[in-house]
Amino acid sequence: MSQPRSRIALLTPAEVAEQCKINVSALHFYEAKGLISAYRSAGNQRRYQKDVLRRIAIIKIAQQIGISLNEIAERFAALPANRTPTAADWSVLSQHWQSDLDSRIDSLMVLRNKLDSCIDCGCLSLSNCPLRT
Fold it and tell me: Which Gene Ontology terms describe the biological processes this protein takes part in (predicted)?
């Protein structure tokens, strides 16, 4: 990506990595996956706008709840590229993930409730195990 039009303060990869508590290699990986983008300085060095900090925070949270990088990339593709996403933008994004998370929580609760009957159930086979259905 070329230099931004306005004279806003850009962050170096080391600054972003330090603030986000990730490795610089993770930034390069996220960039390769299309999750974040960088500008290039006159010396061809990466520089990031401050909104990348919010995107990385969302990436880290989404990964903690089991959302794949591919799904994160799909959702990020719907966000505006030319401005910092607003609270409304993030709300739309999070509503989708909340629905998915609620569904997984429901499935886990059903599984948890079946665990008590698992001990001494007598199924003797994973193929017959009621927990696998």
Answer: response to oxidative stress
pTM of the full structure: 0.75
Other Cβ atoms closer than 10 A to 22: 16
User: What's the whole-number average pLDDT of the chain?
Assistant: 85
How many C-beta atoms surround the C-beta of residue 14 within 10 A?
Answer: 10
Q: Cα angle vertex 21, ends 58, 66, to 5°?
A: 40
The pLDDT, as a whole number, for residue 124 is: 67
The yes-or-no verdict on residue 77 having pLDDT over 70 is yes
pLDDT over threshold 90, residue 100: no
> Taking Cα atoms as reference points, which of 72, 68, 77, 65 lies closest to residue 108?
65
Write the secondary structure of 16-71 as one string of H (helix), E (strand) and C (coil): HHHHHCCCHHHHHHHHHCCCCCCEECCCCCEEECCHHHHHHHHHHHHHHCCCCHHH
Domains of the chain: 1-85 (1.10.1660.10)
- Spatial CA neighbour of 13 closest among 38, 43, 35, 42: 38
50 Cβ contact partners less than 8 Å away, ≥ 6 residues apart: 8, 9, 11, 84
